[in-house]
Amino acid sequence: MIQRRRILQAFAPVPAMLMDGRAFAQSTPIRILVGAPAGGSTDTLARTLSIEMGRLLGRTVIVENRPGAGGNIAADAVAKAAPDGNTLLMSFTSHAINASLYPSLPFDPVKDFTPLTCVATSPSVLVAHPSLPAKDVRELIALAKAKPGKLNFAIGAVGSSLHLAGDAFKMQSGAYIVNIPYRGTAPALQDVLAGQVDLMFAAVGNAQAQIRAGKLKALGVTSAKRLPAFPDVPAIAEVLPGYESSAWFGLFGPGQMNPELAKRLSDAARQAIATPDVKKRLELEGAVPVGNSPDEFARFVQAEIPRWAKVVKFAGAKPE
């Protein structure tokens, strides 16, 4: 009987009482704040994750959208929330970019948050209108250098990871390509499809249907290696060694969270990421599941901030 009880306890839901003595109250929903509008990739991934996390924790987990200021509104709310595990943040690459993009922030992107896990990364693809006379990245660089300022990039959002993917490309290649900003990815992509703009870095999930239909030409992917979805499309790193620019989505809590609480939430998120339903949803979004430990994610975020700062400085980007 004792052995049976121990086995049952080992597979029981995460306990409600934590090491710091405060209740992880089951009557209170866990809120995951998202600094992006409903329907986008960050929101979709948060909602998919919330269902499995709720099941694993034996709690209600809801998603609350607080878009604006590149994710800073939601991040500020979480930074100022009690570290009791009831308010979390599903953030994205801008969490690291904003540290240098904005002249000042009402929070510290490292000290005021507890990293729980990186949920997924999302490589992008460099696409062009089929009429562009370059079939790969090497030919594109040669064309841009032969005609400096004649080619252009459509930018869906100034300061976004896709915007800075283009500036990182220009920084490493030495090519001069003009940025044309848009208010949103959809109109930017539409103008590339129409041939009004030459090039764009687009999320794989947004562009793969048009690539397969021959309406867009894929020149290279931003991951370190080729993607299984496009095995014939080279990684840009094959021409520009060291080039890599993937968006990422991560789960944070407020700073100063109890380590045991942070571990329980991280473990639940990581188990959720590993489930078939969540993995399938991530793949539909063109994302690659990660699910690393809090320490690994913390080191990743700390490295991302100075990496993006170099690109922001090169681009001279300013928040909209």
Automatic annotation (TrEMBL):
InterPro entries: BUG (IPR005064), Bug_dom1 (IPR042100)
SUPFAM superfamilies membership: Periplasmic binding protein-like II (SSF53850)
Signal sequence segment: none
Keyword Acyltransferase set for record: no
Gene3D superfamilies: Bordetella uptake gene, domain 1 (3.40.190.150), Periplasmic binding protein-like II (3.40.190.10)
Pfam family, one: TctC
Sorted UniProt keywords: Receptor
Family: Belongs to the UPF0065 (bug) family.
Protein name: Tripartite-type tricarboxylate transporter receptor subunit TctC
Source organism: Acidovorax delafieldii
Lineage: Bacteria, Pseudomonadati, Pseudomonadota, Betaproteobacteria, Burkholderiales
